[in-house]
Amino acid sequence: MTAASAMPRSLTSGRVRLRPIAELDNRAWRRVAEHFRDPEIAFLNGTPPNRMPVWLLRRVLRADARRRDRVTYGIFDEREDYIGTIELYDVRHDRATLGIIIGERSHWSRGYGPEAIEALLDEAFHDLDLQVVQLHTFADNPRAHAAFAKVGFSEVRRATVAGGRVDVLMTMPRHAWLERRGLRVAESVRARPSAAR
Questions:
Q1: What is the β-pairing status of strands 132-138 and 166-173?
Q2: Which of 12, 23, 80, 110 has the fewest CB atoms found within 10 Å of its own CB?
Q3: Is the pLDDT of residue 195 over 50?
């Protein structure tokens, strides 16, 4: 199953709700633009700050979200405030790459990232039937590294990239996710609706 063949829906885990990016309102889009412009957040993601106006950023991100190899959500907290973005991209065959930005500093180091990741991994391994989800982070971003490890991602390798930063590749195989959730692979397959295959 490809990302685009799945119907986008809201996902929940703990205090967070993930909503398809197409459902974001104007207020949330202004926050998206502020997050993408923030120099510290850009550095942590290994990108330059984005200077697009809100209308253009919205157009670009919504177009990206319609691609067959991508699913993108806005992250909302328990008060229904937009706090960040999470996505699966490069969805190919049985694997994908995860990306997340918790842009609201008031929500850093408070467990919102791991909760959002758990919601998206449920979709990845159950609805999209993926076998592996990977991600890249930087060794100089210990907060992100700790959040990914908390959910169960394991470090696979480190490599020095342009600018001398160390890129850390982490993965989560489906069997490890199911074990963490207390499910056996056979039970997961049996519980999956046949229409989703």
A1: antiparallel
A2: 80
A3: no
Using the structure block, give the residue that is written with the tokens 């919102």.
Answer: 112
Contact call for residues 112 and 23 (beta carbons, < 8 A)? no
pLDDT recorded at residue 8: 61
Phi, psi dihedrals of residue 172, rounded to the nearest 5°: -135, 105
Q: What is the pTM of this model?
A: 0.86
- Rounded (to 5) percent helix, strand, coil in the chain: 45, 30, 30
3-state secondary structure of 165: coil
Is residue 4 predicted with pLDDT exceeding 50? no
Helix (H, G, I), strand (E, B) or coil at 79: coil
Asked if residue 1 has pLDDT above 60, the reply is no
Contact 155, 137 (CB under 8 A): no
Average pLDDT for residues 66-79, to the nearest whole number? 94
Domains and CATH numbers, the chain: 3-196 (3.40.630.30)
95-102 and 132-138 strand pairing: parallel
CA gyration radius, the chain? 16
